[in-house]
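Quick one, T. Sequence first:
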Amino acid sequence: MKNLTSLTIRQAHEGLKKRTFSSVDLTQAFLERIKKITPQLNDYVYVATETALKEAKEADEYIRNNTNFNPLTGVPVAIKDIFCTADLPSTAGSKILKDFIPPYDATAVKKLKAQHCVILGKTNTDEFAMGASTETSCYGPTKNPWDASRVAGGSSGGSAAAIASDNTIYALGTDTGGSIRQPASFCGCSGLKVTYGRTSRYGVMAMASSFDTIGPLAKTVEDLALILNIIAGSDPLDSTTPPQTVPDYTANLNQGIKGLKIGVPREYFSEGVEEETRNKVRDSIKILKKLGAITVEVSLPLTRYGVALYYILVPAEVSANLARYDGLRFGPTVKNPDNLLDLYLKNRGVGFGQEAKRRIMLGTYCLSAGYYEAYYQKAQKVRALVIQDFNSVFEEVDLIITPVTPTPAFKISEKTDPLQLYLCDALTIPASAAGLPALALPCGLSSENLPIGLQLIAPQFQEDLLLKVGYTFQKNTDFHLRKPAL
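Structure tokens:
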């Protein structure tokens, strides 16, 4: 029998249906592997051993009594530590939420629990999802399974590393400016950033409310479709989720891509993107052409403003969203403050890390009197132009293909200048600014044996198109099957 921890969702589901193994067998196999691998990678910040085994037993009981059960039933999942999980620690990688245990589940978690999933634990994240390397976490950085001296990406680095190392079958993450796609690319797994509003953000600690999205990371594109079938949809607790019909995302996976028009934007292959990365993505374009797709060179000239507008708008929203964390209602509180202001300053000074403080100050400055019009308002106008940029290109093509990142994973502590880290998201931010769905999947290895990813971007609410193309690509390549030596 195949190693249980290497299974995909589809394979695990088939095994559970045939009674080849039980959910308890699966869960125990993962808990044993986590015990061995997590000290090397720091991918989990909390392992829910007791509750996971309890949920596995309940799943087995459900499976015994129901012949027709969901593919996610009894299958282990890891949850990014920015999701609220009832009775499990939820700290967003921050000291200011130390020991915080929510009384309720995030909507996405609640939907998974309704299918009798098994939560293995909480995965590491940059503090409040602020970072591109999981180095800002109060728990320390997550290490890349392909090379422990390198980052796993961020902010969903723990989730991506757990999948790549077979420490889970799938995971939930968040993507604000690339936080699912970039770690998926760095770790060699598949990750989906959904259309803004396609999944509920309720119960997920907000960083930038007009950018944040909730999405899956998994071993295959087919698995992403199975997960999205469950977590997508409108939520009365999140007014940004429209009453849009949720299709069966697995229904059209086998349709093929003949005649599909794919745009290749010249700006995403220009200076700043390493030649090896460019070449791997261009090789992937050739594969898609052989499978029947038509490629068209297009231009997205406003791409170069993506990082600038993002690091005005996002810190502005950060400064508002993080104002609630004052150490009074939850988290550590300093003793013997001089007055109320001193209490706030000291609690936030001790509780927040350097990157969180940096973004709070940047955002507060951009929203302050005299600067709001000069910075925030202008950035919003540029964001509107970026959306127009994409809309005009989508009049010519069905979707867009680009690299995910300019380079493969970099060394831990290599990028000490914040601007260097911000530029890591230069190729993922524009789709986030426009609220578009985007898929990251592996397309090869570098000369240093590091994963390289390609990015597919589609018009709003066309996740099914992305998944179909990604599935077709993976049916005809083996890049997603390659594993790090651990």
